[in-house]
Amino acid sequence: MSAQMTPVRTGGEPRSPRLSIHGLSVRFGGLSALDDVSLEVREGEVVGLIGPNGAGKTTLFNAVCGLVRPSAGTITVDGVPLPPDPTRLSARGVARTLQGLGLFRGLTVRENVLAGRLGAHDPGTDAQRQLDALDLAGHADRPVGDLPYPEQKKVALARALVAQPSLLLLDEPAGGLGSEDIAALGDLIRRTAATGCAVLLVEHHVDFVMSVCDRVVVLDFGRVIASGTPDEVAGDPAVDEAYLGIEVSR
Predict the structure, then answer these.
(1) pLDDT for position 121
(2) Fewer beta carbons within 10 Å, N or C terminal of the chain?
(3) Which residue windows are transmembrane per the record (predicted)?
């Protein structure tokens, strides 16, 4: 499905990397899930991470979040290594949505959003701001499990954004959404990046990625096979081969 959005490309002088991954490798026993992966996401930039199933996309996210231990390589945010502890990510300005939502179904929408701002000086004000921004205020006191799936996706995103992250990791944010919701999501991602937040997203909707991202990184069998602007990646024969299993003449 096609998302009708016009991406705002990063212009002017190159910005400093917010997230830097260099030479990242992850092994599970004899299986190499990631092999010498390097990428950067700059301040105010949206980078898409795509690839066939099993390419290593979620493993990379889990490595950034300290859920799996790399066998080699470095991961830094603003030049400082990330702690290998998921509970300390928020303090470093990192927030993530989950492919499976990860909401507390017995809690209200407001309570779920507040969970992303625990320990803040005035979490209620921050939560209300996100509820308003995502048109969730009318559902604030409903159990989140009573909402339709697209609305639950909004709640998960609001919970991530309420922490005011400088680095936002989105794991398949468009999954299960219709075309109108996908277009609205793309606009929200661009507005978030415009505040200076760096966004790295994993997504199977390739047309959505190409329309919203400044750069795209393609993984296959744990290795980077292409990286560049959406136009550059879309015209790369290695990408067609990875997705379609067809070798294209070079």
Answers:
(1) 56
(2) C
(3) none
DSSP assignment, residue 34?
E
Question: What's the CA angle centered on 211, arms 61 and 218, to 5 degrees?
Answer: 40
Write the single-letter amino acid at 57.
Answer: K
Helices 179-194 and 149-161 cross at an angle (nearest 10°) of: 10
Buried b (16+ CB within 10 A) or exposed e, 151-160: bbbbbbbbbb
Is residue 63 within 8 Å of residue 75, measured between CB atoms?
A: yes
Rg (alpha carbons) of the chain, rounded to whole number: 18
Cα distances from 194 to residues 20, 100, 147, 177, 188, in angstroms, run 20, 27, 29, 23, 10
Give me the phi and psi of 172, to 5 degrees please. Answer: 50, 60
Give per-10-residue mean pLDDT for the chain (250 aa): 41 74 94 95 96 92 91 94 80 85 88 79 79 91 92 91 92 88 91 94 91 96 94 88 56
Residue 245: partners with Cβ closer than 8 Å, 6 or more residues away:
none
User: Would you state the structure tokens that stand for residue 169, as one six-digit string?
Assistant: 């990791």
> CB of 236 within 8 A of CB of 242?
no
Q: Which domains does the chain have, with CATH numbers?
A: 1-93+165-250 (3.40.50.300), 101-164 (no CATH)
The CA distance from 58 to 151, in Å, is: 23
Q: What is the distance between the alpha carbons of residues 106 and 152, in angstroms, rounded to a whole number?
A: 13
Counting every residue, how long is the chain? 250
Cβ proximity of 8 and 191 under 8 Å: no
Q: Which two tokens stand for residue 73?
A: 């390589």
Q: Is the pTM of this model over 0.70?
A: yes
